[in-house]
Structure formats: structure tokens, C-alpha cells
Write a structure and sequence with these properties.
Two copies of one chain form a homodimer. By secondary structure, chain A is α+β, with helices and mostly antiparallel strands. Chain A folds into two domains: about 300 residues, BirA Bifunctional Protein, domain 2 (2-Layer Sandwich); about 90 residues, Anticodon-binding domain (Rossmann fold), CATH 3.40.50.800. The first copy, chain A, is about 35% helix and about 20% strand. The first copy, chain A, contains 14 helices and 16 strands. In chain A, strands 1-5-6-11-10-9-7-8 form an eight-stranded mixed beta sheet. A five-stranded mixed beta sheet of chain A has the order 13-12-14-15-16, with helices on both faces. In chain A, helix 12 links the parallel strand 12 and strand 13. Chain A is elongated. Chain A starts with 16 loop residues before the first helix and ends in an 8-residue tail after the last helix. The model of chain A has no long low-confidence stretch (mean pLDDT about 95). Chains A and B meet through helix 1, strand 1, strand 2, strand 3 and helix 2 of A and helix 1, strand 1, strand 2, strand 3 and helix 2 of B.
Chain lengths: ~425, ~425
């Protein structure tokens, strides 16, 4: 049984209040950008039938599943990613919605990997997808959201870059060089590892197709190998004023098996971290998942919470913006009631209820303690105001905790008076 | 392998946009009430070491676990409830926070039960706890939040009632009647089932302690059996103006093994559903989980998303409030751009970016389509305004979709102009 105390599982996080506030900052920023850009929110189940993931996501994922048999004998898996579920959900419900669907989800995913900086066994993902539109205008609309998300976190041009590629260019290349259709997934996997694989392994794997690493590198280095889709995306984003955030990088192929066309990844400018976000076209997945009953072209991307947080914390202007937000959300309440005369506690409880009901975040000490100690609690709570209820009730004293100035007010006016004060600079601490 | 298409697992829900919006309505209401009342948010892991739950939560829960062995050979469980994790987390981190801790969490839990109305195999729970304060003032503060949550959903006095009991009263009763300490959990379990167990089974189980169902019922029926804690809670809540929401009901014992004192449940007035919320004191759990290294009295409650949603939908005034909220959140965007002259698409894309960057929710058709069809899309998007970009650019036409009135404006003024308009009645559709 347990040692001196229980702990969280390796790779799983306890979100204590500050950690939870940081999580909420990411979630609220993602949600607000997505809604500004015309996306609606959905959520798929955390647990799914394992067969949904096997062969659909493909690649490394199938070795990293939290997979088990439930009490009913079902082979089930904690979702390692959301796109397979989305395809399932859209295949079932799409007929109720005009096309294209612009949908987003913020949710947790699970992969059994070695925990390390920038990677846990659970992580939160912002998933954004456009379904029902196959042209590059949808890719551009999607990439613009990836860029707007970065800008919403306070990043500026020069902090990050979106590297765009097209699997179709590689499929054409492979076909021209005599790679058979069945071998294309393996070929794409080699390209994906071009800078990470040992040279001798790389040459051996490419040799099987009568190709060399130099040929691959030469193809990557030649800008004219960009596809027509890439050119259209670049033109669209330039019209939006976002052209400077995007560049061609044919070395990007993406790991998952289901991508079919344009793919992209967002990197910090120094490329010192894993990709901040990545995605691309998966035009055949909905048909695969629905056994052909629904056929919708689709493109999507995901941004995880680990890397974006690290990048925010290492980028002073983005970190400053986050700290200001956290500061505003760190308080336990805006108004702390000090009960200076215990015989007035019933009046204090009634006032507390009125303040809260009036939309004001308020608190009071649960038990009798000395007034000086109550003021200490008020300070520690992070409140802007201490409202003193004493023997003079309904005459109250209000202390502005930052300036230590004191004012007088009547209990009956307290809700209106404090609501008004909290609207003035520097506003309520609690959003 | 799969049939014609994949489906969600039994008891697991797909949150399509409307379902997700309802979920968000519950979450936002919970979060806003908790923050008004001075609670801070945390979140514990969804997956924990199984030993955390065995014997700690006790009772029926251990038979309902989603429990499995992970790839590292660990015995792990999808959380069936949050309190055990909270106790673990608080034992580790409490020294960094002034007491009492007032913490809340909104998260998903998993129980392998028979799916039915008001109960799935996953559900979301609003968990609220006060740790570090053992007196009834903390129970009253907690119960006041349960009541304020119901009021925030639009329920009024008469719609629901909080039934309060005290396990200590039953422990005293059992001790007086010669029930040994080891048998008390079994005895409490009998009391818990007093109205659900078959009479002959009931009498047989009570007979083992030389007790009868009539004795139990007589104890429940006698108001003077209320504990001193109950009286203090009733007085506190009455001072807050909340006394009318609370009544004594000694038949309430609660299922989980860890409760030690005051327990309560929130029911709809007709008691036609399962409890909307329930909780109570668990003064020894933190010490148990931390093997005695941290000893904090605690009280908490949970409200699940299934029953509260059913109750809202069956209560016209609460349902109306939810529908108004959903209406405001059902739009895809506030402003829909109509590209009347395709040669001006680059200008439309730039304007779209400016609107979004200015905080306005805006969208446009991704591909050239006839103007009439674009207006149809604008209507279906739920937007308030259609902004027409044509050959007269930068002169724009704005159509108010509800009144079909038309106005003129300049592209350079569009962000300011529309921001201003969206502040006027009836405001932005997207909060």
C-alpha cells in the first residue's frame, strides 16, 4: 500500500490555484480567439473504442495508448488526440449544420510517453477544424487562426513562424521516382525523420527506393517545388496582412498517417522548442471513419498547453501580459468584510449575501478573531476593499487596502456603491 | 472490427455545439458563483493511483471503477470522484495557503454504472470544499454556496430544498444502542437505505443490532434529535436570509464512507429526481490520505451536470434563463462579411482581420458565391450585421439583419463603428 503519502502519477499534473489560473488563461485566450474568428465549440468523449484510433491515427500513437478493457469487456482507450473522435462525431451530425463547419474543442489528451520538459502523459489541446471545404482558402482561414492565437498571447512578428508544407508535393515526388502507393507512408516517414535519423540508417532506408538523402534535401531546398495550394495560401494570408508569419518548409510532413495535403507547424523563431502547434489537411478521414457514408474534406490544427506555456514564460512581453492577467485573477475576493463587533455578525452575513447576489466577489472570516487579524486576512485575500461592520451599523467604514484611505457608507447603499467603485480604475480584481 | 460507423461508448456523451453550449452555461454559472463567494479554482488529475480510492471513498464506488493497469504496470483508475484527490493535493500543498482553504473544481468523473436518465458513465461535477475550519460556520458558508448556485440558475424559493442531517447524531444513536464501532459503517448503510430496502431485509439487518425500523423512523421523525451543529447552521443561514431553503432530514446519511459529521443533499421540491447536489463533513480524510502528516477538518459538496440540467429543463423560469443565454451564444459570429465584388476579396480579408483583431466576432464566405447566397449564409450564421464589400470599396454597406435596414460606412471606421454598435441594445451575440 501507499508510502507516507499519495502522489500524482508520473506525467500527470496537480493544478493548484496558480497552475489552474495559468491553465484558465490559456483556455480563455483560445476560446476568445476562436469565437472572434467564427468557430463554435464542441467536445468529444475522453474515452473511446480503441478501434477508432488503431490505423486511423497510425504511427507512433498506437504504441503510446492508455488502453484497457472496461468492466463490460470493451477494448477502450483514453483519447491520444481528438481528430478521430471529431471525424466520428461529424459523420454522425454534419447534416444538421451548414457547411463549412468551423468547430473547436479545448480538451485533455493522454499518451504514454517518457515525461520530460514540454511533454507529459496528459496535456490539454486546443483543436480547431474546418470541414466541408477542400480549397486552400480553408487552409488559409485555419492558419490565420493559428497566427491570431499567437498574437492574442502577446507574441509579435519575429517571435514565431508558421512553416507550411504540402504532403501532395512529396506524394508527387515519390510517384515520379517510382515509389509504389503502398510504400508512400514509409517514404513520408523517412522524410519526416530526415534531420533526426542517423545518416547510415537514412541512406539505407532511402536506398530501398533508389533515392539518396541529397535528392531529398535538394527537393526541400528548391522553393519552386511549392504546390499551387501553398501559393494560394500565401496570397490569401498576405491580403490579411499575415504573409510575414508564413514560410515554405517542405521538410515538414507531420507524424500522423491521416494527413493528405497541406500541413504546417508553428515554431518559435529560434526553433529552440518542439512545435507550438501543428496540423493540416485530412480529406479522407471522415470517409474512412464513416465507412464511406459521409465524405467531407477537412483541415485542422492542434496547439498543446505545454509548449505554448514554456514559450510564453520565455518571452518577456508575452509573459508580462500573462502575469497581468494572473494578477487580476489571483485575488480570493474583491471585498473582504471585517466584523469589528461580533454582535453584528448576523448583519454582516446578510450584507455578505447581498454583495455576492449583486455580483460582487466578497468574503468574511468564518469565526470571531481580532480586528487586526481580520485586516491581515483581508490583505492576504488580495481584496481591494475591507468593509468594516461595527457597533455603528448600518454606518460602515470602507478601507481601500492599496492606499489605506478610509471612507464612510451606509449598509443599504453598499452593493450599488461598491459595484460602482469596482467599475472605476483599476477595476474588479476578479473578472 | 467496427460496423458501418463508430459510435460513442455507452454512457459517454458527444457534446455537439448546442450540447457544448449547455455544458458551458453550467460551467460558467458554477465558476461565477464560486468566485463571487471567495473560492479559488484548482484541478486534480483525471487518472490516479487506484489505492487512493480503495477504502478511502468506500461503499459502492469500488465496484464501479474504470480501473486498469497502465503500460508501466501501475494499477490506475479514472477518478470516480474528486475528494480523495483533493485531500492528497491539499496534504501536499496546504502549507502555502492561509486557512481556511476555499477551493472549487469543475471536472469530469467516471463510474461504470448502468446508463439511465440522470446518470451516465461520465459526468461533470462542480466540487466545492472548505478545509481548515471545523465549526458549523464553515458548513453554513458551504451550504450558502449550494443555495446561491441554485438561485444563479434561476431557481426560486419553493423550487428546491436543502435537507441537512448529521452523521454524528446517528453515531451517537448507534453507540447508545450498543452498536460496536466496527459495525457503525454497516449501520449507517442500513439507515441510508431505510426507504429503499425491502422491509424483510431491513428488519433482518437491523435485528442483528437488536433494533427495528420503527426505532429508526421514530428517531428521524423527532426534530429535537437535530445536533447543535444543525441549529448553528440554521441560525447562520437564517441571518443570511437563506433559512427558508433548509430543513432537517435525519434520513440523509450519504453513501461515501469518509463522511464524519454534518451531511446534506439538495433536492427539487417535488423530490422527483435524484439529489441535485450532496456533501458534508469529512474531518479525517486528509489525515488518512496523508498518513497523519496533515490533519485538516473539511467540508465539501458536489453538484453533477446531469440532474441540474434535467431540473433546469423541467422548470420553466430556469429553462427560460438558460435559453436566453444559449440564444446569445448560438451565433457563429456577430458580423458576416458579404463579398459583393470578388476583385475586392483581398480588401475583405484585410477588413475581416481588422474586425477580429478589434475583438469583433466576424466571418466571411471562403469561396466566391452569389450575393444572395452569401446573405443566406449571413442569416444562418446568426449574425446581427451583414457588412457588404463591393466595387465602391472603401464605401461599405451595412445591413442590420433583424430589421433589414441599411446604413453606409467607411472601411477605416468599421472597427470602431461596429464595436460601438455592438455595445448598444441588444449587444453582441457572442459574450
Amino acid at each position: 500500500m501507499a508510502g507516507p503519502s499519495f502522489q500524482a502519477l508520473p506525467g500527470f499534473r496537480d493544478f493548484t490555484p496558480r497552475e489552474c489560473a495559468i491553465r484558465n488563461y490559456l483556455f480563455e485566450t483560445w476560446r476568445s480567439v476562436a469565437r472572434r474568428c467564427g468557430y463554435v465549440e464542441y467536445e468529444s468523449p475522453i474515452l473511446e473504442d480503441t478501434s477508432l484510433y488503431l490505423k486511423k491515427s497510425g504511427g507512433e500513437l498506437s504504441a503510446q495508448l492508455f488502453r484497457f478493457e472496461d468492466q463490460g469487456g470493451r477494448d477502450v482507450t483514453l483519447r491520444p488526440e481528438v481528430t478521430a473522435s471529431l471525424a466520428r462525431l461529424v459523420a454522425e451530425h454534419q447534416r444538421h449544420f451548414p457547411k463549412p463547419l468551423k468547430w473547436f474543442e479545448i480538451g485533455q489528451c493522454f499518451r504514454y510517453e517518457k515525461p520530460q520538459k514540454g511533454r507529459g502523459r496528459e496535456f490539454h489541446q486546443f483543436n480547431v477544424d474546418i470541414l466541408g471545404e477542400g480549397g486552400p482558402s480553408a487552409d488559409a482561414e485555419l492558419i490565420s487562426l493559428a497566427i491570431e492565437s499567437m498574437l492574442a498571447f502577446g507574441f509579435v512578428e519575429g517571435d514565431f513562424v508558421v512553416r507550411v508544407s504540402d504532403r501532395q508535393a512529396w506524394i508527387d515526388f515519390a510517384t515520379e521516382h517510382g515509389v509504389s502507393e503502398d510504400d508512400i507512408p514509409d517514404f513520408l516517414n523517412i522524410v519526416d525523420k530526415i534531420e533526426r535519423e542517423k545518416p547510415e540508417v537514412l541512406e539505407k532506408r532511402l536506398g530501398a527506393y533508389q533515392l539518396t538523402a541529397d535528392q531529398i534535401r535538394a527537393f526541400i531546398a528548391e522553393p519552386s517545388n511549392a504546390s499551387a495550394a501553398y501559393d494560394a495560401i500565401q496570397a490569401d494570408l498576405s491580403a490579411r496582412g499575415l504573409g510575414g508569419f508564413v514560410e515554405l518548409d517542405l521538410s515538414i510532413v507531420r507524424g500522423l498517417a491521416y494527413y493528405t495535403g497541406v500541413v504546417f507547424e508553428v515554431f518559435d523563431a529560434k526553433k529552440s522548442m518542439r512545435a507550438v502547434a501543428g496540423g493540416g489537411r485530412y480529406d479522407t478521414l471522415v470517409a474512412t471513419i464513416s465507412d464511406g457514408s459521409v465524405d467531407l474534406p477537412a483541415t485542422g490544427f492542434a496547439m498543446g498547453d505545454y509548449v505554448i506555456r514554456n514559450l510564453i514564460e520565455e518571452t518577456p512581453h508575452a509573459n508580462m501580459q500573462m502575469e497581468v492577467w494572473l494578477q487580476r485573477n489571483a485575488a480570493n475576493c474583491d471585498v473582504f468584510l471585517v466584523v469589528a463587533d461580533e454582535s453584528k455578525r448576523p448583519e454582516a452575513l446578510k450584507l455578505l449575501t447581498n454583495l455576492r447576489r449583486g455580483g460582487i466577489s466578497a468574503d468574511l472570516p468564518l469565526n470571531p478573531v481580532k480586528v487586526a487579524k481580520q485586516f491581515q486576512s483581508a490583505e492576504r485575500s488580495g481584496a481591494r476593499f475591507a468593509l468594516v461592520i461595527g457597533s455603528e451599523f448600518p454606518d460602515l467604514k470602507l478601507k481601500v487596502l492599496s492606499s489605506r484611505t478610509e471612507e464612510s457608507l451606509q449598509a443599504d447603499d453598499a452593493v450599488e456603491w461598491l459595484s460602482d467603485r469596482l467599475l472605476q480604475p483599476d477595476g474588479p480584481l476578479l473578472a
